[in-house]
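Dear Dr. V.,

Thank you for agreeing to look over these. As mentioned in my earlier message, I'm a first-year student in the group and I'm still getting used to reading structure tokens, so any feedback on how I've presented them would be very welcome. I ran two proteins. I've put each sequence directly above its structure. The first is here:
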Amino acid sequence: MQKILAAGLAAMLLTAPAVAQQQRESVGDGAQAPLRDLRINEKKIPDVLLLAASAPYSSQGTKSCTQIRASIADLNAVLGTDADAPEAKGGNGGAIAAAGSRAIVGTLIPGFGLVRMVTGADKQEKRVTAALYGGTIRRAYLKGLGVSKGCKPPAAPTAAARAAVPALPADDKDDKKKD
């Protein structure tokens, strides 16, 4: 069983170069999960995310479009591009590959959850998740302020993003029921 899982992990890692850079990094992050869980490969949370999470709706640094644009650029540097960026229209392949690699790595190491709890990796992961969430909220808030002040992208969402009509994604299960 472990040989099959190891082969699956190897195949996933070998196919990663064919995917975009961001997706390769996501798969690599999943493969490095044991190192993070043992706190060997722990990265510091960027200050911009810690500040954003501490006060996502702060009006500090929001007086002009230039300030808003700079704050959004700082957040984009650590969060990646926002949903309204043209290069963001690529699907969620990287997220799926990363989740798969984390699942495979997790099954190869007995007591994985216990190791995470004892080493404090769970606690650090919660801190990172909260910082990412706060940064995402801050960026959305800043873009909303940008719209209200008449700023141009990237200090506000693109016109296409504002004009988009919300739609639920197609669910494969619903499609199969219709057949």
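The second protein is here, in the same arrangement:
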Amino acid sequence: MPHTPTPPRIPLTVIGGFLGAGKTSLLVHWLQQTQGQRIAVLVNDFGAINIDAELLSKSNSDTIALSNGCVCCQIGGDLSQALLQVLDTPQPFDAIVIEASGVSDPWPIAQIALADKRLSLHGVLVVVDAAAVRAHAADPLLHDSLLRQLRAADLLVLNKTDLCCDDEIQACTTWLHDTVGPVPCLHSQHGQLPLALLQTDWEPASAAASDDEPAHICTDHCTHDHDHDHDHDHDHDHGHGHGHGHGHGHHHSADHANLFTSDSRSPDQVFHTAWLREQLQQTPAWVMRLKGWVRTHEHGWSEIQFAGRHASVQRARHTPAQARVLTIALRTPQQTQAMPSWMDAVWGAT
């Protein structure tokens, strides 16, 4: 009987990072520069994926097919089922990327790759908001969740460096090194990093960055030795040739799902852009993340974003099915009392 060759394993990459760090921006950027490669991306919410209309091929309730051969799948309540759907596709994908939620630990997700012989774990990439990460880490309610994400990383991406001066970037890079050890660290703006990160080992990843995609490993101040044997409280064998010594001993000291609450609205009214910007700048301190699409007098459909105390209102690149604003907040006594009335006042009653 002739021997049937074993098909190559599909590399799986997990993208983690706190709310608003820029995970989705990175995913969309990758989907738009695939250069013939078929990438499957598993996300928590289609609503956050702002894909240009000309790239869309077809979609249904849980899958978006792109004209470049890639696919987006919504995880829903069962990650394993969503992943099986991707793996059972007749034409195998070149790579699979899973987006972890902004409040979750990405390492348990990465373990899925170790349990399925069709997959190999490429690694865990954690996106960091350069302008907000140290403030979040100083919050006793967020500290454990944030550090758990950072310590799961094989590669850190210090994003939103355009919002920081050089001294702030250097201080943040030093803080990351002191916090998680010698983990390779890229700098980026708007999540613009080369797709080649999915095909190469991450130690020399900066060599793949093009001139128009600013990305570099560390800074002059960083003392990473890049031997990629970081053993900062983790121990997992990735099985993809790096000999990582992570040791993800996860001591869940808090129920992280109970740290946050969310509320969504579908406002019917048409807003003035200046008023929206004013409201976003006055967002209560307990709001961690706000995103969505609304109609404005100036631009028609507009995308609104709030993360790390930074806000933006800009013309939407595509027409959403409906207006929708999602707010994720830190669960505190003040928030529990104030959030419904604040949402009603700004976005309208449900």
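From my reading of the second output: The first strand starts at residue 10 and ends at 17. The chain is about 25% helix and 25% strand. Does that match how you would interpret it?

Kind regards,
E.
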